[in-house]
Amino acid sequence: MKLFTCQHCRQLLYFENTRCERCGHTLGYLPDAGTLSALEPDGDGWRALSTPGQIYRFCQNAEQAACNWLVPADSATPFCVACRHNRTIPDLSLPENVFSWQKLETAKRRLFYTLLKLGLMMPAKFEDEAKGLAFDFMGDPATPDPNIPKVMTGHDNGLITISLAEADDVERERRRSSLGEPYRTLLGHLRHEVGHYYWDRLVADGGRLDGFRAVFGDERADYGEALKAHYAKPPSNDWQTSFVSNYAAAHPWEDFAETWAHYLHIIDTLETARAFRLRVNPAVAKGEELAAEVDFDVYRVEGIEPVVDAWLPLAFAVNSLNRSMGHPDLYPFVLSPAAIEKLGYMQQLLRDSRQG
Fold first, then answer.
1. The whole model's pTM is what?
2. Residues 248-274: tens digit of each pLDDT
3. DSSP per residue over 113-160, as a string?
4. Domain segments of the chain as ranges
5. Are 85 and 134 in contact (CB under 8 A)?
6. Residues facing residue 46 across a β-bridge
7. I want to staple 13 with a disulfide (CB 3.0 to 4.6 A). Which of 4, 60, 210, 245 is the partner?
């Protein structure tokens, strides 16, 4: 993600900020311009210092501190381009649900930041039931009922369901540990599940099945049986030679979704590194192979090689920093040549979709 500054006082800002702590200006994000803007009141709306002459209002979900995105004052919808995809939100009469939902929306806005920068257009389901995208953020019943199944995170024909339990850090860590996963975050869930949606749109609908199968395998293999076989296997590291994660080895659909998520992880982190002008140049003998500088636009660079050449040294550096603080690795994965080839496929797929 790029860096943002207050247009009034030049204070550096986080993407999630709603108020500049230096000058006190209210802040709002303009998705069309990709700018977090300082605002000044103007009648019933807000005037953005970054785009003089245009009046905005906040997304309706700002009332619950769940969004800081803006919509034009004359817009017919009360919701921003990200929140208009919500089909179900949790019961906000429960304070714990409000906090969990706010965390989910924070992750979802970061997802949409990247999707918009990639030029991926996405109708909401109320606009296009067959091919639209929607989110259900749902909690389990307050009182367990054997007749009501627990909410499962997943994707089904453009509908992404995220269990509210995933917003509980303790519960998410319990699930991560029980499944033997090295990594589990809300943003990771969203990136993975939206990968399934874009497989439908870009691969299946886009007439790219042959190219997909050449790289990931035949998705016509029975999905349910593949998952059963995956979870029945004892833990091993066999996946590391061909996949970005253990779960990616379960089925070609999951391989695509996991690779999609990793590609989004990598490009977003590299964009942030470029914004900070980060360089990696280890002060060790023969450290040249770990030297890198993110001096290119990751959304426009040709080929996957510059991306990987910058990512591997940066990941090693930040993993080392995390270990110095007693934290797990930021990126606890090893990219094999086969996994890098799949990341290259993802980059080309997105490039072709933009050109199309």
1. 0.94
2. 999 999 999 999 999 999 999 999 999
3. HHHHHTT----BTTT-TTT-BEEEEE---SS--TTSPPP--EEETTEE
4. 4-81, 82-192, 208-356
5. yes
6. 41, 56
7. 4
